[in-house]
Each structure stands twice: as structure tokens, then as C-alpha cells.
Write a structure and sequence with these properties.
single chain; Tetracycline Repressor, domain 2
């Protein structure tokens, strides 16, 4: 699924409004899910309550898209996991666990 989304965004959505609208809906759903989970994380104290969930969700979505594109070139799992952790640490600060433990 990720490859389809990345390919569609980078190649087809620029020229096709129907695809662009579909991808917008997919990205809106992802953003909504990010916001829901960020709000839950605030409630249980996993992240600071003063974090703006919408801003962070936007950054997570941008990072996800970048990581999906990078994954087409970088085929080393450890490097991609490290890139994900670095991205999350940049966005959320040091309150991110070690992803390689999951």
C-alpha cells in the first residue's frame, strides 16, 4: 500500500485531479488517526499536554511521506528504523521509545 501511495503522489497526482482527491482523503484519514492517537498519548501522559496535536500530525504526515520515498532507495532496515526514530525525536522530543524494540 505504501508504494502505491508514494508512487501515486509523486507521479500521478500532479496531473490527475481524481487521484489527487483520493490521495487527499487517504492523507486526511491518516492525519485524523495521528490526531486521535496524539490526544490519547496526552491523556495518559506519554507526551506533553501542551503539544498541538494538529501541528504534530501534519509533521508526522510529512515525515511519513519522506520516509516512504526514502525507503524506495534505502533498503537497510536498521537505517530506516533509525531514520524513523530520529524523525519522531525531532518532532516529539526525547519522549520517544526505541522503535527497534517493537
Amino acid at each position: 500500500m505504501a508504494c502505491l501511495i508514494v508512487n501515486s503522489i509523486s507521479e500521478m497526482a500532479i496531473h490527475n485531479e481524481a487521484i489527487r482527491k483520493k490521495l487527499y482523503r487517504v492523507e486526511s484519514t491518516l492525519k485524523s488517526n495521528f490526531i486521535t492517537n496524539l490526544d490519547k498519548a496526552k491523556q495518559v501522559g506519554d507526551i506533553a499536554k501542551d503539544i498541538d496535536s494538529e501541528i504534530i500530525a501534519n509533521q508526522l504526515l510529512i515525515s511519513l511521506n519522506g520516509l516512504l520515498v526514502a525507503s524506495k532507495v534505502v533498503k537497510d532496515k536498521d537505517k530506516m528504523v533509525a531514520a524513523c526514530e530520529q524523525s519522531l525525536q525531532f518532532i516529539l522530543g526525547n519522549r520517544v521509545g526505541n522503535l527497534s524494540e517493537h
